[in-house]
Structure formats: structure tokens, C-alpha cells
């Protein structure tokens, strides 16, 4: 690994019973890099994200974040996990908390930030994702696109070293996809390290430094977006792209 590698997966394997869902996965993500992961349903993309955040255990191999191997459990894990933000397809907001509280709570409980500083930070981030005016509302009063932007603000509030996005726009009505992708594009421009699982190939072309194609638990190929979309080298990537483009 080089010094600039923020995330390093080395020979990672994961099984669910007889199903081998991650097969000898090696992946390095550099500081400031935007890696877009694509591939068919069931390829193991979500499992990979969840493993990086230790929401899912692995059977063998190692995963390091900023030079520290992720422990299986314990107090150190909670601290390391806070360094890896995650944005899910289903938003996962606290339904009974206001938008503002959704962005404040983790700062207070996990980072032990004073309440007033957490509120200030939350307001600043809600402004940044374009929903400063919605702070007092509850998630259900917002559109899907707005809820997902709250989720992004909540992830940013923890000042993570990297944010993992697992199909962040897949649950959205089509007219709301762009407002979320625009926020993500702006984060990418600001130098945030991002791992993004998505079917939005336009976003992959525009924002990715590297596209990683997964199938059947393996990284089949990876390349810069122009090279990958222009001339995918594997048959599996070719047939996947032929189906979706
Ligand atoms: P993707 O996100 O690429 O669609 P997943 O990582 O969700 O793929 O799933 C990879 C494979 O692992 C799929 O075959 C899925 O059915 C299986 N799988 C995922 N989670 C579990 C689980 N908790 N228990 C058993 N099998 C699972
Ligand atoms: Mg998935």
C-alpha cells in the first residue's frame, strides 16, 4: 500500500453459508479519490460496503482504514466506524426526530461535541445540501431527495474520512435523482474520499476517478471511467454495459 491509501482491502473473503459473496477482494482507495462500484444485482457490492464499515463481519483477509486494521468489535471499532460515513438507499433517518436533530445527535453522542456547536454545524451542513429551510420538519414531511440530502448532511457531520454510498438514488423518484447526485458531485469536487455503488452511469462518467466492476463476488476489472466505458476488457463487463446503456 502507498501512504496515500485511505482504505485497503487485502484478500477479503465473505461467505453466507455456501454462498461465497466476496472472493479474494483487493481494493485500495486513495485519499480524495472517488471510486464508483458497478455490477449486477447480487454481485456483492452492498456486502463490500457493509464490510468496510464492519456492519458485516468478514471470514478472512484484512480491511484497513487510514492505516489501522479494523478490529472485529469493541470500543476501538466504534471510533473507527465513525471515520467511515455511510449513506443507504433507504435513507435510514430517525423518523421521530426533526431534520436538525437527525444531524445533531451523532455529533453529541458519538463525537461528544457540545450541543450548541453541534447545532451550528448541523445548520451549516443543511444549508450546504440545500435544505436549510427544512430543519424543523420531520423526515416524513420531506421528499425522498430531501431526505437523502439530510442523510448526507448527517454523514458529513461526523467528519468522516470517507463516505460510502450504497445506491443512494435507487429509491428516489426520477425527478429527485439529480438533486442528490449534484450534492455528491460537489462533495467529490471538494476532495471528499467517496466509494459509491450506483447504477447512474452518467455520474460514474462525470465524477469517478475510477470505476470498479464487480460480478459474482469478484472485482472483475477496474479502470478510469473513459477507459472502462470506452472499452471494457472483460466479457462480463461488456454484457453488463450492453444491458444497461
Ligand atoms: P449487491 O449489493 O451487489 O446486489 P449483495 O452484497 O447485497 O449484492 O449480495 C450478494 C449476495 O449475498 C447475494 O446473493 C445476496 O442474496 C447474498 N446476501 C446478502 N446478504 C445476505 C445475508 N444477510 N444472508 C444471506 N445471504 C445474503
Ligand atoms: Mg446492493
From TrEMBL:
Residues 7-241 form the ABC transporter domain. Keywords: Amino-acid transport, ATP-binding, Cell membrane, Membrane, Nucleotide-binding, Transport. Belongs to the ABC transporter superfamily. InterPro entries: AAA+_ATPase, ABC_ATPase_HisP-typ, ABC_transporter-like_ATP-bd, ABC_transporter-like_CS, MetN_ABC_transporter-like, P-loop_NTPase. The keyword Acyltransferase does not apply. It holds the Pfam family ABC_tran. It comes from the Bacteria. It is found in: Cell membrane. The keyword Magnesium does not apply. It is a peripheral membrane protein. Gene3D superfamilies: P-loop containing nucleotide triphosphate hydrolases. One of its GO terms (molecular function) is ATP binding. This is Amino acid ABC transporter ATP-binding protein. Its main location: membrane. PANTHER family: AMINO ACID IMPORT ATP-BINDING PROTEIN, GLUTAMATE_ASPARTATE IMPORT ATP-BINDING PROTEIN GLTL.
Amino acid at each position: 500500500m502507498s501512504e496515500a491509501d485511505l482504505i485497503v482491502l487485502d484478500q477479503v473473503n465473505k461467505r453466507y453459508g455456501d454462498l461465497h459473496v466476496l472472493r479474494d477482494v483487493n481494493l485500495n482507495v486513495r485519499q480524495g479519490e472517488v471510486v464508483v462500484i458497478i455490477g449486477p444485482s447480487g454481485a456483492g457490492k452492498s456486502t463490500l460496503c457493509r464490510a468496510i464499515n464492519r456492519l458485516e463481519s468478514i471470514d478472512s483477509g484484512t480491511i484497513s482504514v487510514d492505516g489501522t486494521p479494523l478490529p472485529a468489535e469493541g470500543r476501538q471499532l466504534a471510533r473507527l466506524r465513525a471515520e467511515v460515513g455511510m449513506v443507504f438507499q433507504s435513507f435510514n433517518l430517525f423518523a421521530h426526530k426533526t431534520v436538525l436533530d437527525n444531524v445533531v445527535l451523532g455529533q453529541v453522542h458519538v463525537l461528544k461535541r457540545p450541543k450548541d456547536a453541534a447545532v451550528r454545524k448541523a445548520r451549516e451542513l443543511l444549508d450546504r445540501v440545500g435544505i436549510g429551510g427544512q430543519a424543523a420538519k420531520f423526515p416524513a414531511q420531506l421528499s425522498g431527495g430531501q431526505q437523502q440530502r439530510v442523510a448526507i448532511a448527517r454523514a458529513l457531520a461526523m467528519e468522516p474520512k470517507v463516505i460510502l454510498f450504497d445506491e443512494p438514488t435507487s429509491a428516489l423518484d426520477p425527478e429527485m435523482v439529480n438533486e442528490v447526485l449534484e450534492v455528491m458531485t460537489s462533495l467529490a469536487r471538494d476532495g471528499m474520499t467517496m466509494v459509491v455503488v450506483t447504477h447512474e452511469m452518467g455520474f460514474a462518467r462525470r465524477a469517478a476517478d475510477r470505476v470498479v466492476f464487480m460480478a459474482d463476488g469478484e472485482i472483475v476489472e477496474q479502470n478510469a471511467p473513459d477507459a472502462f466505458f470506452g472499452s471494457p476488457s472483460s466479457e462480463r463487463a461488456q454484457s453488463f454495459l450492453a444491458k444497461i446503456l
